[in-house]
Specification:
alpha+beta, 2 domains, eight-stranded antiparallel beta barrel, 2 helices, 11 strands, elongated
Length: 246
């Protein structure tokens, strides 16, 4: 009986080891796919993950309406990096990500229903004292970048990736997921979803410039915040810093 138990234990051990080896091979394949392991002889690919921390605002504000400098937005994206040649310093990158455009301001969106539907932006009443007043729009984005890289440092090394100069002009288009406004005073917090006439998509130009582990990022929307003729003509802009790795 003891011999049978030992044989069963040995079979269990060998089974566990076989599963571990299979999982190890699978995870190694994933690491190689995302280039988290050492590079092979193919063209080197990197900067597959980008997270942008931005200060958001609008161009074309009405008189007496201002945005707060501390309007913090966020973008996160995964890119497919495609070098244009085995040793090329130029690449194209396609991505998929999400973005949140947040603007604190001293105005109030007013939906006018007399005649055609129109959403205007008026200054807040002087009798109202809000501690927080912001507009939020969340998107799913598809960006594309043309990537220029100066990589004269130690080929195929972490230094090559993080200590090179990178210039990434680009373009992105996004679909609106949701939008809302939020007000907060000393006692009550208000949140209203789906402001009327907000455009259901966005598109615009981007620029990311990096050296070492630091990057600056900018976005200028070529599409207005509201549908043409149905809202105040505001154009979102963002500028900030990026964390880009892998």
């Amino acid at each position: 009986m003891a011999t049978i138990i030992r044989e069963q234990k040995m079979r269990h051990i060998f089974t566990v080891l076989a599963i571990c080896l299979q999982l190890s091979g699978f995870s190694q394949g994933l690491f190689e796919y995302f280039k988290l392991t050492a590079a092979d002889d193919g063209p080197e690919k990197f900067d597959r993950i980008a997270v942008d921390f931005t200060l958001d605002s609008w161009m074309g504000l009405p008189a007496d309406v201002e945005t707060n400098v501390a309007s913090l937005g966020l973008n996160a994206c995964w890119y497919k990096d495609i070098p244009l040649g085995k040793k090329s310093r130029v690449a194209i990158a396609f991505g998929l990500g999400v973005g949140s455009h947040n603007v604190h301001h001293n105005g109030e969106f007013v939906h006018e229903t007399s005649g055609n539907s129109y959403t205007d932006l008026h200054p807040l009443s002087t009798t109202t004292e809000w501690k927080k007043n912001k507009f939020v729009a969340n998107y799913i984005d598809v960006p594309i970048e043309l990537r220029f890289r100066n990589m004269n440092i130690k080929p195929r090394s972490e230094d090559r990736r993080t200590k090179s100069f990178r210039f990434y002009p680009g373009f992105k288009v996004g679909a609106l997921l949701n939008n809302h406004v939020k007000w907060k005073d000393d006692e009550i917090k208000y949140k209203v979803y789906n402001i009327k006439n907000v455009l259901g998509y966005r598109y615009g130009v981007t620029l990311r410039v990096a050296f070492n582990k630091f990057a600056v990022f900018g976005f200028y929307s070529l599409s207005p915040l509201f549908e043409s003729g149905k809202g105040v003509e505001l154009y979102p802009i963002s500028i900030g810093v990026s964390w880009i790795r892998f």
